[in-house]
Amino acid sequence: IAPLDAEMDETGQFPQALIDKMQKHGFFGIIFPEQYQGGGADPLAGALTIYEIAKASASVALTLDGHWLAADAILYHGAEEQKEKYLRRAAADALVAFCLTEPCAGSDAAGIRSTARFEGDQWVLNGTKAWVTNGGVAGIYVILAKTAPDKGAKGISAFIVEADAPGLTVGKKENKMGMRGSQTTELALNNVRLPAEALLGREGEGFKIAMKALDSGRISITAMAAGIIEAAMTTAKRYARERQAFGGPIANLQAIQFMIADMAVSLEVAKLMFFNAAALKGAGRPHTKEAAMAKIYGSGRAVKSCLDAIQILGGNGYSRDNPVERLLRDAKLLEIGEGATQVLKMLVGRMELAE
């Protein structure tokens, strides 16, 4: 994975051949039950997988995160027939994409405008989705739309839509600052007709399904942050040992040691936080607050660690010939996607005050 990351960043191309190879070797089904051809691993093993991959490429880790986030909605809320059909495909050869965000609704997820009407014996979906991770390369989409627009969040429902559904069109591919090997697109829904059994969970439960899926995603984001911190620290340590200045390696300078120490502490805390949240999820216990806190901390420390790594490398760190500037651009997304830091702080604050 690692040798491909610079090329992905340069070209913005999705690494389909790599993804095919990873699917062949079972990576994308690691956390699915064995009865659906998955690996049967627990959430902590899944988070550790994201962590290890993120050391080499945050883009590939994000592709897997987006896949698992969407598949989680099917795993925990789908009917048995849906699990049999879609989780088997998700484990074998089909990426899954989660479609909540819209041009008019990002952090305010309840403000989505896409609609789903039941006509005869079919659901009819219309609207536009934005910032869809795995858009255009997924074989399966989990799409949130309003079935009762006047009910706000309680009027949102979730649907499973196959990529070849008539009326489903992949729109603009985003030209992103970072995570450039992960494909992100818009998605247009123009009278997409679905059978009644495409409804995921019960009508009106879509918002709840989405929020639970995002809890899982935030664990993965923290694991990704830990991987980025470790990658930045590894590069900074190597450079500090080799770079000679002021009569010796700059690793001897207290200013450098302090920055390395901050990275080491950040890595250890981020790991412990995603270990804890993943363990709670695996035990079937509530983990909304723990996942949110982990993401707040991990994403912020990933950005700071990358900035410090650039500082240690000096002018070399500012050059695209070194990986740390790419790590910084990748890390910034972690403070935005799957719950912006400021929104998650409001969530944690409300939960703390309610206890």
Notes on the protein architecture:
The protein has 355 residues and is of the alpha+beta class. 53% of the residues lie in helices and 17% in strands. A 4-stranded mixed β-sheet has the order 1-4-5-8. A hairpin with a 2-residue loop joins β9 and β10. α3 packs antiparallel against α7, α4 packs antiparallel against α5 and α7 packs antiparallel against α8. The longest helix has 37 residues. The model has no long low-confidence stretch (mean pLDDT 97).
Structural class: alpha+beta
- From the N-terminal CA to the C-terminal CA, the straight-line distance is 44 Å
Calculate the mean pLDDT score and round it.
97
Number of helices: 11
Radius of gyration from CA coordinates: 21 Å
Approximate helicity band: 40-55%
Can you tell me the overall shape? globular
Strand order of the largest sheet: 1-4-5-8
Profile the largest sheet.
Answer: 4 strands, mixed
Order of H and E elements? HHHHHEEEEEEEEHEEHHHHH
Beta-strand percentage?
15-25%
Q: What low-confidence regions span 5 or more consecutive residues with pLDDT below 50?
A: none
Number of strands: 10
- Assembly type of the shown chains? single chain
Describe the protein's topology.
Elements: H1 2-11, H2 16-24, H3 43-56, H4 58-77, H5 80-92, E1 96-99, E2 115-119, E3 122-133, E4 140-146, E5 156-162, E6 168-173, E7 184-195, E8 199-200, H6 206-242, E9 244-245, E10 248-249, H7 254-282, H8 288-313, H9 315-318, H10 324-334, H11 341-354
Parallel strand pairs: 1-4
Antiparallel strand pairs: 2-3, 3-7, 4-5, 5-8, 6-7, 9-10
Helix pairs in contact: 3-4, 3-6, 3-7, 4-5, 4-6, 6-7, 6-8, 6-10, 7-8, 8-10, 8-11
